[in-house]
Specification:
Layout: H1 2-25, H2 33-51, H3 58-65, H4 69-75, H5 79-96, H6 109-124, H7 127-138, H8 144-171, H9 186-207, H10 211-215, H11 218-234
Helix pairs in contact: 2-3, 2-5, 5-8, 6-9, 6-11, 8-9, 9-11
Length: 237
């Protein structure tokens, strides 16, 4: 009888150990799946920034993410898919998160637009964000489809965000009566604002070895461009 009880206890212990191993090796609970993918993307971003695309490996990303290679391949894909996911996530997050970082305050329309433009450029030209963007540009021949996707997505999202800011300002300022700020024109006006004020500094930062040189000129650049932009709007541009 004692032997049978001992055998039963042994089988029970083995079953529990097997169950625990199954939890460790199997798929995580559904509510944690997003956390795993997020951890993989963050780790891949860190590795790509440190070693570039060519110098990085899925093995290294797996170690940094504390995830097995099968999990990475199943959740995101190979190294090309990881790079694509990292760049697209950065572009989308960079633009959409900026909405929560715009400095509040009153003042003239020139002062409010200046604050928005300065904050946007300082946000975009942050060194780590620029490093990833430079890396994406450097790999354009290897990822031509990614370059097109990044360009289209960035243009669409940034225009939406800028149009939202301009629409808010137009509600409390005389510019709201101008044709350029009419609902059916606001997207075009927002694109003109970005092309005139933001894009030139972004392009300079891509090719300037010392980004600090560019960031130091943000204030003077914006101060010159905002009056020009508003003058064009007031003249029917």
């Amino acid at each position: 009888m004692a032997i049978k009880i001992n055998e039963l206890r042994k089988k029970t212990a083995q079953h529990k150990a097997s169950a625990r191993a199954g939890v460790r090796l199997g798929r995580p609970p559904k509510e944690r799946e997003g956390e795993v993918e997020e951890r993989i993307i963050r780790a891949a971003r860190k590795v790509f920034l440190a070693h570039g695309f060519e110098g990085s490996s899925v093995d290294e990303i797996a170690i940094a993410a504390r995830a097995g290679k099968p999990t990475i391949y199943a959740r995101v894909g190979d190294k090309r898919a990881l790079f694509t996911a990292v760049v697209m996530r950065d572009v989308v997050d960079r633009i959409t998160q900026f909405k929560d970082q715009v400095p509040a305050g009153g003042g003239t329309i020139e002062e409010r637009l200046t604050r928005v433009a300065v904050a946007l450029l300082q946000w975009m030209l942050e060194s780590e964000r620029m490093a990833l963007l430079r890396l994406a540009v450097a790999e354009v021949n290897r990822f031509p489809e990614l370059a097109s996707q990044v360009s289209r997505t960035a243009q669409q999202l940034s225009t939406q965000v800028a149009a939202g800011f301009l629409s808010e300002m137009a509600q409390s300022d005389e510019i709201g009566t101008l044709p350029a700020f009419a609902p059916d024109r606001i997207a075009v006006t927002a694109r003109a604002f970005l092309d005139l004020v933001v894009l030139p500094m972004l392009l300079r930062a891509l090719f300037e070895q010392n980004i600090d040189i560019v960031t130091q000129e943000i204030g003077s650049h914006v101060t010159r461009r905002i009056p020009f932009f508003l003058a064009a709007c007031r003249q029917g541009g």
